[in-house]
Write a structure and sequence with these properties.
The structure holds two protein chains of two kinds. Chain A has eleven helices and two strands; from the N terminus they run αααααααββαααα. By secondary structure, chain A is mainly alpha-helical. A two-stranded antiparallel ribbon of chain A has the order 1-2. Chain B is α/β, with parallel strands linked by helices. Chain B has a nine-stranded mixed sheet, sandwiched between helices. In chain B, helix 8 links the parallel strand 6 and strand 7. Classes of the chains: A mainly alpha, B alpha/beta.
Chain lengths: ~260, ~425
């Protein structure tokens, strides 16, 4: 009677200790050897990082020399003009006002988001963005407050560049636009269309008023810069240009697919 | 002598003879939620377990620049205009306060996420904070390093020390009560060497020095990191490369979620989703980040010293010149390659030769073991599953630091720095 049980226990113990061995062995000084279970490629087949990265560097960029000059211009402009203005704006504006202004312009931005969701026949997204526009413009007092996000309707960006991409338009050559930053031919076209659409819809009369009051446009631009966290030089690499180019390319692909 | 006091005397003698042992945090009460070392390294702590920190609006801070190597103005091509002066960030308290220097890890900028986090933590606790880029970073190499060939830790610490002195000189009105020093990862190794240098130069008289996850044997760490990109990743074939694989997963993750939302918890949520990365894939991600650092180092060092290994000497470079061909070359160079092609030849030329083993001895924590044993102001926090350590490294730390070493059971490499238990321990150490 006792024998089978003890055998079973012994078996279980052996099995248990085997499992423990396969999982981790801890050194006498407490070191857990975190890399011990990784699988490595055989010595002559260790080029995956190089292969992937060299492939990723292939972004169509026939205007590279021009783009690089614009990149350096933008970098200097950002550092010497743009960021000082943004810092000053942040310093004099109370936080609550700042958030209000951001929400206000973000609400205006939902107009192209809605149009482009509709153009891509994304029904649910178009409905949600319509609801956002309605709630934020009414309850949110002309968009100064953003109750829609609190209700579980997060902002979903769609622009005309994405719409074009959605229907299969290739991105065309990479472009760095003066002051506006990384783009490509397709998205630059999209930018123009979205701008025109915003003007045509004239939501809350902002587009019309700002043609008489350029300070509104200036405020919009400053607000936009202050909400974007990117700083030149923060990637801290001599190859920042290449890295931004890759990120932009991939981020757009992701936004279009999503 | 009656037996009980005699026994007591014996015990107390024994206690004196044995070195004080390290503080090992009990895994059952530690509470850090990520048990996978690679995941912890990538995702760090879930947001709800991080300490409360002051926001940017509550911090009086600015970026400054100081000219440390005027000759670089003429040596560097024009598209390096932004790194000809050394930049750093200073956060000031309103009145007199202790000042803490933060040294960034491998290749990291002073404003990258970990130094920013440490700044918030210490600023919130009432310190002036100075953030410095790593001596292995592109900007520091170009603007502050005398030889622009990082890896000789003693020389790197010397460069850092000069930078710190210049920072202090630029703010004569700043009221400082005491100086403290900390660094994470490679920055922690630098902090140890800076502290030793300060014992003779005496500009700061650091009161306390905290080393967070330092490498012990630099060569072991470098080898571990180089190896990470050699992992056998499932799902890679001739039509899909590694980045496409990861980006594909990310796209599907966002599609399932219904919207794109990039925030602090992204990686953590991602790892709890269906698309989660395998260990090999995470290893590849971490390894790739370090390979980008090594290629930046190889390119910059070669260019500044005109070695002609990557950029041909006298190659005309202006703002419009494509650097992509040089990026392609530099990408093939891991840390080992940088060591053999650039670091060791320069070290041999400057210090009359020596073997690789001697170099490793000189640049690792071993070189300071006597100093570290006797210096009670220095403490170490490390993790039992840190991926930059090798066998025996933790043992060396235990012997050298005794009770000034705290070993956390989890956290990978620096993944638990922003866990509330760790941040409390850091502040407690500096409070003294």
């Amino acid at each position: 009677m006792a024998k089978p049980i003890s055998l079973a226990v012994l078996f279980a113990l052996l099995l248990g200790s085997n499992l423990a061995c396969a999982e981790t062995t801890v050194d006498a000084d407490g070191f857990k050897q975190p890399l011990q279970n990784l699988q490595f490629n055989p010595g002559l087949d260790q080029r995956e990082f190089e292969r992937s990265t060299l492939e990723a560097l292939d972004v169509y960029d026939p205007l590279e020399s021009w783009n690089r000059r614009v990149y350096h211009f933008n970098y200097r402009f950002d550092e010497w003009v743009f960021l000082p203005i943004v810092d000053g704006y942040r310093y004099i504006t109370p936080n609550i006002v700042e958030t209000g202004i951001s929400n206000f312009f973000s609400n205006l931005g939902d107009v192209p988001n809605l149009l482009n969701s509709a153009l891509q026949l994304k029904g649910e997204r178009a409905m949600k963005t319509t609801a956002r526009l309605l709630f934020n413009t009414t309850i949110g007092v002309a968009g100064l407050w953003d109750p829609a996000t609190l209700m579980g309707l997060p902002k979903q960006k769609e622009d005309f560049g994405q719409t074009l991409g959605y229907y299969g338009t290739p991105s065309g050559p990479y472009l760095i636009l003066p002051l506006l930053g990384p783009s490509n031919l397709r998205d630059t076209g999209g930018l123009v269309v979205d701008f025109a659409a915003k003007k045509e819809v004239n939501w809350l009369n902002v587009a019309e008023t700002s043609s008489d009051h350029p300070e509104i446009t200036l405020l919009e631009v400053v607000d936009q810069r202050s909400t974007v966290n990117f700083r030149y030089g923060q990637l801290n690499s001599p190859f920042e240009y290449e890295k931004i180019r890759f990120f932009y390319h991939e981020a757009r692909k992701l936004q279009i697919a999503e | 002598m009656p037996p009980v006091p005699r026994l007591l005397a014996l015990f107390s003698l024994l206690a004196l003879a044995l070195p004080a042992s390290a503080v090992d945090i009990d895994p059952s009460t530690y509470g850090y939620p990520i048990s996978n070392a690679l995941e912890a390294t990538l995702a760090t702590t879930p947001p709800e377990l991080r300490p409360e920190l002051p926001s940017d609006e509550d911090i009086d801070q600015d970026d400054y620049q100081v000219k440390l190597r005027p000759e670089r103005e003429f040596e560097l091509p024009e598209n390096f205009w932004s790194v000809k002066k050394m930049r750093y960030r200073l956060a000031e308290q309103p009145g007199e306060a202790p000042l803490i220097f933060i040294i960034a890890g491998t290749g990291a900028h002073y404003a990258s996420s970990t130094p920013e986090y440490l700044k918030r933590l210490f600023y919130g606790a009432g310190y002036h904070v100075v953030q410095l880029s790593s001596p292995t970073s592109y900007d520091f190499m170009a603007s502050a390093s005398r030889f622009a060939t990082p890896g000789l830790t003693r020389d790197d610490a010397d460069d850092l020390y000069r930078a710190m002195q210049a920072v202090r000189a630029q703010h004569p009105k700043l009221k400082v009560s005491d100086y403290h020093l900390t660094g994470y990862s490679l920055g922690a190794l630098h902090a140890a060497f800076v502290s030793e240098l300060d014992e003779t130069r005496r500009s700061f008289n650091f009161k306390r020095v905290l080393l967070l996850n330092p490498p012990v044997n630099l060569y072991t760490s470098v080898n571990n990191l180089d190896r990470l990109v050699q992992t056998k990743v499932e799902g890679i074939n001739s039509s899909t490369n590694f980045y496409e694989l990861v980006l594909g997963k990310l796209t599907r993750y966002f599609q399932q979620k219904g919207y794109v939302d990039i925030n602090d918890a992204l990686l953590y949520d991602f790892q709890n989703s269906r698309e989660k990365l395998s260990d090999e894939q995470m290893a590849m991600m971490i390894g790739a980040a370090f390979r980008f650092s090594s290629s930046d180092i190889a390119f910059t060092s070669d260019l500044i010293n005109r070695r002609g290994l990557i950029t041909p000497v006298e190659y005309p470079i202006s703002e419009g010149t494509s650097l992509t061909p040089f990026f392609r070359r530099a990408l093939q160079c891991d840390f080992e390659c940088y060591m053999t092609e650039q670091l060791i030849p320069m070290w041999r030329a400057r210090y009359d030769g020596g073997s690789q083993a001697q170099l490793i001895e000189q640049v690792s924590l071993y070189a300071l073991s006597d100093y570290l044993k006797g210096s009670s102001k220095i403490a170490v926090m490390h993790n039992a599953d840190d991926i930059i350590l090798g066998s025996g490294d933790l043992g060396f730390l235990r012997q050298t630091f005794g009770e000034r070493l705290t070993v956390y059971p989890l956290g990978g490499h620096c993944g638990n720095l922003n866990y509330r238990v760790n941040s409390d321990a850091m502040l407690e150490f500096f409070r003294g």
